[in-house]
Amino acid sequence: MDIHIVSASWAERGDALRALRQLVLLEELQLPALLLEDPDDLDAEHLIALNSAGQLVGAARLIRGSGDWAELGRVAVTREQRGKRIGARLVRQALDAAARDELPELRVDALAAAQPFYERQGFRVRDHAFSVAGVRHVPMSHPLMIAFASPFDADQPRPAPAVIETAEQDDERQSSLREFDAEDAAKEELLRVLSGARRRLLIFSPQLEPALFDDPAFVERISALARGTATAEVQILIRDSSLIVANGHALIELAQRLDNKIRVRRTPEQMKVDEQSWAVADDTGLWVQSEPEALRGWADAYAPVHAQRLVTRFSRYWERSSPDPDLRLLKL
User: Fold this and answer.
1) What is the pLDDT, as a whole number, of residue 58?
2) Torsion angles phi and psi, residue 97, rounded to 5
3) What does the pLDDT look like over 29-50, one tens digit per residue?
4) How many angstroms separate the CA atoms of 265 and 258, rounded?
5) Are the C-beta atoms of residues 280 and 318 closer than 8 Å to each other?
6) Are 102 and 96 in contact (CB under 8 A)?
């Protein structure tokens, strides 16, 4: 049966959610009765999985608190529907919902037995394990897409919280979230994401950081991508070309030689853009330098939800940008 995931309130689906938790969490997993319901249910967003007959076969709870994160919990899928990636789809929907609210992190106090499941979804351990009513939990978190300031977002309507997913099967690829906090690791993760590109690579970097984008290994990979297929393309957006013109840049020189495959534009001075750098490979892989003043950030070779959001933002920037005449001063 097709599985649809929708958003609901406790007022709308409370009875069905209570019954699901009773069946899965209390009776099957023998978890404490306090998980049946609590006051947070009233204000939470509940993601529910329905089969084509309208029966509730899975659910998860998303709480948006006063902190800079959202909290995932009460994830439950009926025994008959396990092994069909419904749990992974519920988690993915929660990640997407929290990211739409521009929250930097989604947290979960995972059951110790479920830790491997959450690790496959890109979560990492964030603190020491603890016990509630004798049940061991592992605090975990998943960083979300960094909020990029844009002058074009203010008058854009925000998506409604309800999300419907109708795909019967998910892509078999898994999230592979990794963090970096040093130059070598940043390069390694950038190359890892780039290695997954076959069709398109988008790069946004205010000054096209030389330590990363002028690196010989990176430029060689870009050259291989651009020359690899007739349809491959690389689009590069920069903010300021003064240092590039003054010091030279191998990636820009490559772009000048392959100007039909590698295009470079500069954003207008009046456009407010973030100082962070990021790259998107084939609309699914992500590399994000989350701290402008340090080579610190995260990368995920398969994060289509977050990647699509950046693709949209990149397109907005690109449409309002133009070729930089100063780059013609670079000598080949």
Assistant:
1) 95
2) -65, -45
3) 888 887 888 888 998 999 999 9
4) 14
5) no
6) no
